[in-house]
Design a protein that fits this description.
The protein has about 150 residues and is of the alpha+beta class. About 35% of the residues lie in helices and about 25% in strands.
């Protein structure tokens, strides 16, 4: 009998256990990297949305405040709208999309002096600060001169 007939018949090549474990490990690392990238991008998108909504709510409140009389404006000093409880000056609740925001109003008496013209103007500095409870997301301020009697 020739020696070649004593060999085992040829078997189809299959993955070894080590090759399968290597492939699963590589696949797992890729899935984890993609998941981390998606999570990070969602967080960045949410933070961007909060900043846009904060700027909108600050601008909206400033527009409302500037419709008030000077004395009514001064009475709004130290107004606080906690996170998730923002309302218009008329008391209407903000839409649900603003749930992560709160804002404060400060009205400070100031005198602006223009040196070159030697003019002083009394009034109030109205400042609105919008936060998410941990960071300031937007600020708006405007000077309102005291009305002439």
């Amino acid at each position: 009998m020739p020696r070649s007939s004593l060999r085992h018949p040829a078997r189809p090549r299959a993955f070894t256990l080590l090759e399968a474990l290597t492939a699963v490990t590589i696949l797992g690392v890729v899935v984890l990297a993609v998941t981390a990238a998606i999570t990070a991008s969602q967080k960045v998108a949410f933070e961007g949305q909060k900043r846009i909504l904060a700027a909108m709510s600050a601008d909206d409140l400033m527009s409302e405040l500037l419709t008030l009389t000077y004395d009514d404006l001064r009475a709004r000093d130290a107004t606080i709208q906690p996170v998730g409880s923002m309302v218009t000056l008329d008391g209407e609740q903000y839409p649900e999309v603003f749930w992560a925001l709160g804002r404060t109003i400060s009205v400070e008496n100031v005198i602006l002096h223009e040196e070159s013209l030697d003019i002083s103007v009394s009034g109030v500095l109205v400042r609105i600060v919008v936060t998410d409870g941990s960071a300031t997301l937007a600020e708006a301020e405007v000077f309102v001169p005291e009305p002439i009697a």
